[in-house]
Amino acid sequence: MPTPKAKVLLAEDDLALGYVIKDNLLDAGYEVVLCPDGQTAIDKFDKNEYDICLLDIMMPNKDGFAVAKKIRQHSDVVPILFITAKSLEEDRIKGFTSGADDYIIKPFSMQELLMRMEVFLRRSKKMHSDQAVFFTIGNLKFSYTDLKLTIGEEVFNLTQKEADLLKFLCEHSNCILKREEVLLNVWGKDDYFLGRSMDVFITKLRKYFKSDPQVNLETIHGVGFRFNVP
């Protein structure tokens, strides 16, 4: 038996659709665990390790938002994609803030789903294989590898997305960055809903920088940002 490409946690209460997705993923070389509701998905995640999670939003016994939050309590690294018929702005924003990395809206092609999955799996694989990545930001110490930001005696655990965003800012410090440039490099695409999510993460990072007045994440109105560091 060939080694599976990755282990997938799939939570979908429409079992007819769930089995279609599962069969296609199996054909593509993935190992798949299909869960009919949110609580089952949480229980499965607690007992096993997964490389990527595909979650429906509207499910009985915990919705996709609750499952994503629970997964993020255990892991900031595993990619989470929402598979949903809901395309309302508030649902997308809620999804990103609960820990999702991306959305795919029903109906979709399996080719699109497979391509999205491969993007995130390549990204997480590269992150694990990289050597230690470390930045000094004024009085702050940032370990991208460990997802930690140290300010004096205090150590903060970052989410993967916070760390990805901060790493990109550090690599382009004191330069003007366009909003779409940040979105494409950190989120993989320039999208209105992702832009709203990015603003949430920018606000979170600014709270950390308050401890050092020399460090400033400046908004360049109508353009983007400049990460000013000494």
Count of distinct strands: 12
CATH topology of the largest domain: Rossmann fold
Distance between the terminal alpha carbons, to the nearest Å?
54 Å
Enumerate the strands of the largest sheet in spatial order, edge to edge or round the barrel: 2-1-3-4-5
Mean pLDDT rating: 88
Give the helix/strand class.
alpha/beta
Short overview:
With 230 residues, this protein is an alpha/beta fold. It is 44% helix and 23% strand.
What does this structure look like?
The chain is α/β, with parallel strands linked by helices. The protein has two domains: 7-129, Response regulator (Rossmann fold, 3-Layer(aba) Sandwich); 134-228, Winged helix-like DNA-binding domain superfamily/Winged helix DNA-binding domain (Arc Repressor Mutant, subunit A), CATH 1.10.10. The protein has eight helices and twelve strands. It has a five-stranded parallel sheet, with helices on both faces. Helix 2 runs parallel beside helix 3 (64-74). The chain is elongated, with a radius of gyration of 19 Å.
How is the topology of this model organized?
Elements (H helix, E strand, L loop, with lengths): L6 E5 L3 H13 L3 E5 L2 H10 L4 E5 L7 H11 L5 E5 L4 H9 L4 E4 L4 H20 L4 E4 L2 E4 L4 E4 L2 E4 L2 H12 L4 E3 H8 L5 H18 L6 E5 L3 E5 L2
Helix pairs in contact: 2-3, 4-8, 6-8
Keyphrases for this structure?
single chain; 230 residues; alpha/beta; Rossmann fold; Arc Repressor Mutant, subunit A; 2 domains; 5-stranded parallel beta sheet; 4-stranded antiparallel beta sheet; 8 helices; 12 strands; 44% helix
